[in-house]
């Protein structure tokens, strides 16, 4: 403790100096911290830029999805779900049923299996399988058959055709076929199902798009042709290298073109062109292009096998 006037003066001066320096030390430290943060953010940003542009990290972080646009509302499915929705819509079209039937079928599958080809049942139906959770023990077909999406969709529509479904509410029509324990559950899927049904039956041109990662293998033109024939009954006009060409007209063309986009992940498709537009995998959307009139052309990665 200070013992004389001189020491007290020195002590007061020292405390004053400490306070004086303390007022400057905080801002200086804050400034150094801010500078360090700016430099760190710059390094991180530069690293991400290099990763995206030189390493290709952008391909691994792409969220793969397929969308259907109705007005200003965008509905989203996974590529696998969209592929199954395309099977259901194609089955309705092939049977010359209206878009309403496709909507009922897609909504039903959304509720029963989330548009997934399930290979197991539940407590209510231990032997339930497939897109519609159809039960072999209830006469829907064999276990192998009900797990074939094309068979399952056609079997559903075979039942739907037996009554006046067009005059009924969607959930009532679906329930009459399915006999579910939750008869009102189908209604909540109607808007989304309608969006995809409208695109996949060709009623809404160029409204279905898929955002996908780059292809990771070669596509097969013969596989595309076989899948198209099984789903739609439509034969291909020409198979050349990695290209499939289908002669079409009107809504049929848009139904097939958007079927091809919905199956782009499965088939390693690079582009689909029709009616002055092309869907490119690199862009993930339909854009204007020079196309061959009267044909849907599907271009695949690599060489056809």
Automatic annotation (TrEMBL):
User: Which keywords accompany this UniProt record?
Assistant: Membrane, Transmembrane, Transmembrane helix
Superkingdom of source: Bacteria
The transmembrane segments are: 33-57
Question: Region Disordered: what ranges?
Answer: 1-27
Segments of skewed composition (Basic residues): 17-27
> Could you tell me what this protein is called?
Heavy metal transporter
């Amino acid at each position: 403790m200070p013992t004389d006037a001189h020491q007290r003066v020195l002590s007061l001066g020292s405390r004053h100096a400490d306070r004086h320096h303390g007022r400057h030390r905080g801002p200086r430290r804050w400034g150094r911290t801010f500078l360090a943060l700016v430099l760190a953010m710059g390094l991180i940003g530069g690293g991400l830029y290099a990763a995206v542009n030189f390493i290709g990290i952008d391909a691994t972080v792409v969220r793969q999805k397929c969308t259907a646009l109705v007005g200003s509302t965008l509905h989203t499915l996974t590529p696998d779900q969209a592929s199954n929705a395309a099977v259901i819509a194609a089955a309705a079209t092939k049977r010359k049923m209206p878009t309403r039937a496709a909507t009922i079928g897609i909504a039903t599958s959304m509720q029963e299996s989330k548009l997934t080809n399930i290979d197991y049942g539940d407590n209510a139906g231990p032997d339930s399988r497939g897109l519609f959770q159809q039960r072999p023990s209830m006469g829907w077909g064999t276990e192998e058959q009900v797990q074939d999406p094309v068979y399952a969709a056609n079997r559903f529509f075979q039942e739907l055709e037996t009554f006046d479904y067009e005059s009924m509410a969607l959930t009532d029509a679906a329930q009459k076929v399915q006999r579910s324990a939750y008869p009102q559950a189908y209604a909540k899927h109607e808007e989304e199902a309608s969006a995809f049904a409208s695109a996949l039956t060709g009623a809404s041109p160029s409204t279905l798009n898929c955002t996908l990662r780059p292809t990771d293998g070669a596509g097969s033109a013969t596989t595309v042709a076989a899948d198209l024939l099984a789903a739609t009954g439509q034969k291909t006009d020409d198979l050349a290298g990695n290209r499939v060409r289908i002669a079409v007209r009107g809504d049929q063309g848009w139904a097939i073109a958007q079927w091809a986009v919905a199956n782009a992940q499965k088939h390693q498709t690079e582009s689909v062109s029709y009616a002055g537009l092309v869907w490119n995998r690199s862009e993930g959307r339909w854009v204007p292009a020079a196309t061959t009139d009267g044909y849907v052309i599907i271009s695949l990665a690599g060489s056809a096998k």
